[in-house]
Write a structure and sequence with these properties.
Layout: E1 3-6, H1 12-23, E2 27-32, H2 39-47, E3 52-56, H3 62-74, E4 81-84, H4 99-124, E5 131-135, H5 154-173, E6 180-184, H6 202-214, E7 224-225
Helix pairs in contact: 1-2, 1-6, 3-4, 4-5
The chain binds NADP nicotinamide-adenine-dinucleotide phosphate.
């Protein structure tokens, strides 16, 4: 049984990760912006209440991040796996994007993941195999530009490329502490973000991510992998 913290657990991939991981016996700290307005998360928790704790965390708000980890530390909790999952998109391209939108995307997708990682470090070190999984995207691959079906979400793509740098640099910085850091693409998934034409149903993508989790010891720190566990070029 692992203790797993997920950001953005109110819906989409974060919600389904909470459901599947708690069902197979892991303990999930399901964090979200508005714990009093998460009906789907509450009904998942009602199935295995002992395996899920719902906690408030808005990754745009440093105080909220700090308070969440302080609460866990006061309770002497540990975390084995951190999923930096919370994310937002704006499909606008270079011609249409606004500064306000681009800044917000960076704040959630990059700065949020950076700060959550920073405040999680001491509690992660209580684990014998601490791991950070940053939910990235093929849209963040510089090498694949021009080759993938989708593109044009300029601020989102830049934010995920920057998130990949966070993965790589923190994997180097945290190697001596035995903390593994990887970027994981979930594939193109039918969530509010991915839309209804996406390739994967949410449960299918999440079960693939969980299969990867079960083979974590074979994945090198600092890797960027797809939903199939295969490396994606940076
Ligand atoms: N779906 C895809 O095809 C796809 C492909 C590649 C990568 N990804 C990545 O996978 C991750 C999950 O995406 P998804 O498809 O599940 O998206 P989604 O359905 O739109 O859900 C996004 C989640 O992030 C949360 N969130 C947004 N801003 C937040 C904040 N400031 N603080 C805390 N939580 C916040 C949302 O919470 P609220 O309910 O409070 O808004 C929601 O739980 C993202 O990082 C995304 O970039 C998705």
């Amino acid at each position: 049984m692992k203790k797993i913290l997920i950001t953005g657990a109110s819906r989409g991939i974060g919600l389904e990760l909470t459901k599947q991981l708690s069902t197979i016996g892991h303990h999930v700290y399901a964090t979200c912006r508005q714990p009093n307005r998460v009906n789907q998360l509450n009904s998942i928790k009602s199935v295995s209440p002992e395996n899920i704790q719902i906690l408030k965390m808005d990754v745009e708000d440093e105080t909220s991040i700090e308070e969440c980890f302080r609460h866990l530390e006061c309770k002497n909790e540990k975390i084995d796996i951190l999923f930096n999952n919370a994310g937002i998109i704006d499909w606008n391209d270079l011609h249409e994007i606004s500064a306000t939108s681009a800044e917000k995307i960076y704040k959630v997708n990059l700065v949020g993941s950076l700060l959550v990682t920073k405040y999680a470090l001491s509690i992660l070190q209580k684990s014998s195999s601490p791991t950070i999984i940053n939910l990235s995207s093929r849209l963040g691959s510089i090498s694949l530009r021009g080759e993938t079906q989708l593109g044009g979400a300029i601020a989102y793509q830049c934010s995920k490329a920057a998130l990949n740098m966070l993965t790589k640099q923190s994997s180097i910085d945290l190697k001596s502490k035995n903390i593994k850091v990887i970027s994981q693409s979930p594939g193109w998934v039918k969530t509010e973000m991915g839309g209804e034409n996406a390739k994967y149903e949410v449960p299918e993508s999440v079960s693939k991510i969980i299969s990867t989790l079960q083979n974590l010891d074979k994945i090198e720190t600092g890797s960027f992998i797809g939903e199939d566990g295969i490396a994606i070029p940076w």
